Structures are given as C-alpha cells and as structure tokens.
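Issue 218. Parser rejects a valid record. Input:
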Amino acid sequence: MTTSPPITVTRLDLQRLERMLDSLDEYGPAAEALEAELSRAQVVGHDEVPPGVVTMNSTVRCREEGSGKEYQLTLVYPDATGDEGKVSILAPVGTALLGLSIGQSIDWAVPAGKTLKLTLLDVTYQPEAAGDYNR
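Output the parser choked on:
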C-alpha cells in the first residue's frame, strides 16, 4: 500500500470545495475521496500557499512514470470541464492532484483497473501566485 504525500489546501479552496460537496445531488465515491483528501490537508491562507502547490484552477505539467508521457492539466470544478486538458476535482486524478507540491508523485487509477504513477513536474499557473483570487 502506498502512502499519500502531504498536501496543502488554501482556506478559500477548502470553503468552496465544501460548498460544492454540500450541493451535490449524488454523494458517491468521488465525493468521499475528495472529502478524505480535504480532511488530511494542511490548510493555509491564500496568501500563504507556496507557488509550487496545486490549487483549484491551477495548470500543471506532470509525467506518467511508466511511459514517460507528459500531460498538461488544469484542475477545475465539475461544471468547468469539457475542454481538453481540464480535469474535474471529482475525477480520481483531480482529487489526487489537489494540494500536491512539485516533485511529489501520486497513483492515478485509470480504466481497466490499472494504476499509473504520476509525478508533478511544474505548476505553470497558480491563481494565488498570479493574484487571481476570484476564480
């Protein structure tokens, strides 16, 4: 069994995500997984989060270790998905990316029961670092 890396979440993201969870029509495994991640997170002010941490609406570059393939993903709320490269916070990879710091790795469950190892290489855009708190 792998151990989850420590994560950091902003107080503002925590409040918004808790409101989103409370508003869900169906509270299934994805919501439970997100709630578990939020409960173990170190919570900081939006002005205290380091720039290399994945927050909501961050765009990141990561690598799947088995193949070496790199991905650029933007972590979004469920209603903002649709464009290529946007991943919902309620998707397994979205939940796993939240709060990660550059250099940390996660296990990414993909269809067919496989698990891939994904390493965070860079946070190319973070709203807090850009001063964009109204996203």
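Fixed in the parser; the record now loads. The first strand starts at residue 8 and ends at 10.
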